[in-house]
Amino acid sequence: MSKKTIHIKGQEVRLLEIDQEDFFCITDIAKTGTGAPRDLIKNYLRNRGTVEFLGLWEQMNNPDFNVVEFDHIKNKTGDNNFTLSSTEWIRRTSAKGILSTPGRYGGTFAHKDITIHFTTWFSTEFYLYLVKEFQRSTSQNLEWHISKITNNIEEVRDLLDTIPGQLLERNRLKKIEEEGN
Length: 181
Description:
The chain is of the alpha+beta class. Helix content is 60%, strand content 16%. It folds into 2 domains: 2-122, no CATH class; 147-180, no CATH class. α3 runs antiparallel to α6 (112-122) and α6 (112-122) packs antiparallel against α7 (124-151). The longest helix has 28 residues, at 124-151. It is elongated, with a radius of gyration of 24 Å. The N and C termini lie far apart (54 Å).
């Protein structure tokens, strides 16, 4: 598990990388709103559309998801006295898309898919900044990978030449190419 931070609209947002998946601290994102971040996240979790989204995400990505308990929670959403915390959601459904870490440096972390859903609910402006950050980091990662491939092309060719018959085939293709010119 690696930890890093990004800055979105002036707010530092912590990230955890778990099994090559990014989990964003939605507590950090909620700090840009009015009210206690914990209460904003609870309000997000008590929304029927949110519960349905989380349940579908978990069913698609988590074989251990407790669908029976999810149905009980879903049936309660919309009731005036219904509340749901992230730790309760995790405990009752065995959810994997949201992580809750206690303590001074803790917070609620959500898989990037859920983070995008949260930001569309929380703040359209923050959502747009987050999307721009995704696009920027994806572009940088792609450029880095391409540079690694192009910088090491000779090593790749040498490696391919070790495959039986590959060097002969490459020489044959090179000869055909030269004859065509």
